[in-house]
Amino acid sequence: MNSLFNQVLYLFFNKKCDIPIGKKKGKLIIPKIISDGSKKIKFAFIAGFFDADGCIFEKQKYISFTQADKKFLMNLSNLLNSLRISTRPIYVTRKELGITYTFSIRFKALKIFLDNIKVVHPDRVRRMNKLKNMIER
Length: 137
Description:
The protein is α+β, with helices and mostly antiparallel strands. The chain has a single domain (about 35-135), classed as Endonuclease I-creI (Roll). Helices cover about 50% and strands about 15% of the residues. The protein has a four-stranded antiparallel beta sheet. Helix 5 (about 110-115) crosses helix 6 (about 120-135).
């Protein structure tokens, strides 16, 4: 991609979506354009975030989100719950690099998640399809 496109995209996220410049911990929010948007927009936002900070555990039939910003993760969990994708409570993990927060999708909501969250990363697409096939058996 060219640098002009990247700059325009960067400014759009900063000015229209309130995504902060620089360090984001403690400053991340779900933009109003997303929270007030249609289901399709909300699902697309979740898919983009999942592509970056989501985890798929095929053998355990488990999907989770991990983030250093607990408040943002709570808001993301609430967004998912509002879309009938129920989540488990957030828990803390202490690692060498600091504290992270994680929640997972409840098993009964996995099919709804997998049917509606359309990721683009090829490995995630493959793994989500594999998980979907496993839970539909």
